[in-house]
């Protein structure tokens, strides 16, 4: 199951190549969850990107998280590097192989002035420092290395606190730090705030690549109450999952709007390819149970 929207102002065959790239990835978003696809969930900012840009209706992702992220950042099918079997877990002592060249490394080959930043979920391995984002081409990273975590406490499925602030290239021992000050801050707000800060502080003379893989709308179903309040979907199988999911998606949409406005205020929106996609479809009953997302009319989903 897949949804992707590629958007840039006045995008056409005659448009000059974009100078900057902002790549936004939603986690476990269903094909039918966005407003423009007929959903009753309000996503006005993403809908606006879709209407002003290009919707890729036959763009396909992998069935789960790590395989899609590996393919996205390498440009290669995941059987090439051993990611065809599913997601990495906290017990894995292997990662995306170091002989794979990732997108930020390609970007810097094209223009050595480029600045590349990652904010959000990694999930491509972290058993050694050289497998973490700032050793793979990114100049900075704020986020979690593992597959999921609590949106507020940032306790990850690794069994401990998993929110890292890596402030420079090759930021390993003695550099990488736990962002304890973010305990209690909702991750969608946190990641949006960092993304907006990166855009605001960037030297627009140099190309920017911002990779923004949000935690939302992955489980656990957690979101500030004000985002859930507008929704009154019926309970399904005794759960309030659809309403919580709707609130999480509304907050994500707000974040996409804030990032778009930051690009406009910086004066670089017209030079930016703003790309939005999901990593896979919404979770299916066969793989983790129903978490509020909708994949209709497609047959598949996350598994």
What's the short version?
By secondary structure, the chain is of the alpha/beta class. The chain has six helices and nine strands, in the order E-E-H-E-H-H-E-E-E-E-H-E-H-H-E.
How would you sum up this structure, described in words?
It contains six helices and nine strands. It has a nine-stranded mixed beta sheet with strand order 3-1-9-2-8-4-5-6-7, with helices on both faces. It has 303 residues and is of the alpha/beta class. The protein is 24% helix and 14% strand.
Key attributes of the depicted protein:
single chain; 9-stranded mixed β-sheet; 303 residues; 9 strands; alpha/beta
Question: Which secondary structure elements does this structure contain, and how are they paired or packed?
Answer:
Blueprint lengths: L3 E4 L12 E7 L17 H9 L1 E2 L9 H10 L28 H8 L4 E7 L18 E5 L19 E3 L10 E2 L8 H15 L6 E6 L11 H4 L12 H26 L5 E7 L25
Parallel strand pairs: 2-8, 2-9, 4-5, 4-8
Antiparallel strand pairs: 1-3, 1-9, 5-6, 6-7
Task: Tell me, briefly, the overall form.
Answer: globular
- Please tally the helical runs, counting DSSP H or I stretches of 4 or more residues: 6
Cα distance spanning the termini: 10 Å
- Helical content stands at 10-25%
Q: What is Rg?
A: 18 Å
Per DSSP E runs of 2 or more residues, the count of β-strands stands at 9
- The overall pLDDT, averaged over residues, is 91
Residue stretches low in confidence (pLDDT < 50, at least 5 long) are 1-7
| Largest beta-sheet characterization | 9 strands, mixed
Order of helices and strands: EEHEHHEEEEHEHHE
Structural class: alpha/beta
Beta-strand content bin? 5-15%
Strand order of the largest sheet: 3-1-9-2-8-4-5-6-7
